[in-house]
Amino acid sequence: MNSLADTCVGTKKRSDIFVPVKHPIMKKLVSTICILSLFTCLHAQTQASLKLKLPVLDKSPMDMAYFPSDYPVLKIQDKASDPLVARIIYSRPQKDGRVLFGELIEYNTVWRLGANEATEIEFFKDVKIGGKKLLKGRYTMYAIPTPAQWTIIFNKDTDIWGAFKYDEKKDVLRVTVPVQKTASVAEIFSMHFNKTSTGADLIMAWDDVSVSLPVSLK
Questions:
Q1: Are the C-beta atoms of residues 104 and 74 closer than 8 Å to each other?
Q2: What is the DSSP string of 70-94?
Q3: Are 178 and 211 in contact (CB under 8 A)?
Q4: Rounded distance, CA 77 to CA 71, Å?
Q5: Of the residues 56, 83, 85, 151, which has the fewest C-beta atoms closer than 10 A?
């Protein structure tokens, strides 16, 4: 019976007659090559069968809000008549049958204004909020809700998860806005800009609660 070396590639072809390689060293070398080739094939098959472990869709997906609204779409359509003023990046948690304000979101406690990473806003020009000047730049937004009003906070410490390490010393502006009860329930937390004669109102709504933050460009 032929050895592994004879069976694999350890033979020579001459006039259509296969002649086994009989030298011990040669046979050992050929056997080693065969074994290595086998392991290479098995490894390649294993790698090909690996499944990618991709992250699942978050229950509070991330979204963006622009002012002017839909600015990226208007830009590619050459319909952007006004320059970009602000962009918000925030996560959108769902009510999902829960009691929100006063329970899930405690009153008089700093809230990330969404879910997961704290909400961030970037202004591309200086603005006025509550009559106070806010320089262009990127800020983290927080809120301190109560039944009657929310305190909206702009903080210079960005790229933050939650409000666990919120540092009041890094606040650059605070504004208080009244709470309005809505006729319908907003199942998903939402932030968007409504254009006004002086700039825009930043609307924040969830459950049966809504607040409006005036942003002035003048």
A1: no
A2: THHHHHHTT---S---EEEEEE--B
A3: yes
A4: 10
A5: 56
Per residue in 32-49, pLDDT tens?
Answer: 777 777 667 666 665 556
Closest residue by Cα to residue 160 from 146, 170, 152, 151? 170
Q: How many whole angstroms separate alpha carbon 201 and alpha carbon 177? A: 11
- State how far the Cα of 201 lies from the Cα of 67, in Å rounded to an integer: 10
Q: Pick the residue with more confidence: 10 or 38?
A: 38
Residue 43: the pLDDT is 62
How high is the mean pLDDT of the chain?
86
DSSP letters of 62-76?
A: EEEEEESTTHHHHHH
Cα 158 to Cα 140: distance, rounded to the nearest angstrom? 5
- Token pair of 174, please? 């605070």
> Phi and psi for 25 in degrees, rounded to 5?
-65, -40
Chain length of the chain: 218
Alpha helices in 2-126 (DSSP H): 4-7, 24-48, 71-76
Instruction: Give dist(CA 117, CA 130) in Å, integer.
Output: 25
What is the spatial distance between Cα 128 and Cα 165, in angstroms, rounded to a whole number? 27
Question: Which pair of tokens denotes residue 143?
Answer: 């809120």
SS3 52: coil
Distance CA 131, CA 128 (A): 6
Residue 15 is predicted with a pLDDT of: 46
> Could you tell me the residue ranges of all domains in the chain?
4-48, 62-216
pLDDT at 110: 97
